[in-house]
Amino acid sequence: MGDLRVEELSAKTIVAANGLTLRPGQEQYVTPVSYSANDAYLNPTTTWARVVLDGDEVVGFVRGNFDPDNPREEFRSCVWRINVDAGAQGRGVGRFAVRELANEARTRGFETLHVIWEIGDDGPGDFFRRIGFVEVGETEYGEIIGKLAI
Question: pLDDT tens digits, residue range 16-61?
């Protein structure tokens, strides 16, 4: 990978972000049920969405949520969504995206970052564990809640 950077979504990048491809079998893990259920209650002012660029090419997307007043701890500072293009997976794009999100969380006064993932062979659990998330519980839907000290 060249020089990775994050940028806010724009008319130029949103189409590319929507066109990111996944490896076969990953589609079912893109949005955990818990996130879908909570989407209706998301406050747009607490959402942090960025594309990850390698040069001028959009290679990933990361969305976080920062809501210190959320009644559920795992939704106060969390990775809401992360997508890395199939051709860019395994090259540090996801790690970079989470690191940028963690930096933003720190600037907002958070000491941890959470993520929720579904269990499965092609799911993101191994990725999140590799970059330091520790399993701390389960949702009411049986998904894993991970926590990263930042």
Answer: 777 777 676 666 556 543 444 445 456 778 989 899 999 999 999 9
Look up the pTM and report it: 0.84
Q: Are 115 and 102 in contact (CB under 8 A)?
A: no
- The neighbouring-strand residues paired with 112 are 149
Residues 4-149: name the CATH superfamily. Answer: Gcn5-related N-acetyltransferase (GNAT) (3.40.630.30)
* pLDDT bucket at 69, cuts 50 / 70 / 90: very high
How is residue 73 written in tokens? 């701890």
The alpha carbon of residue 99 and the mean position of all alpha carbons in its chain are separated, in whole angstroms, by 10
For the chain, the domains span: 4-149
User: 């520790």: which residue's tokens?
Assistant: 134
92: region left, alpha or beta (phi > 0 left; psi from -120 to 50 alpha): left
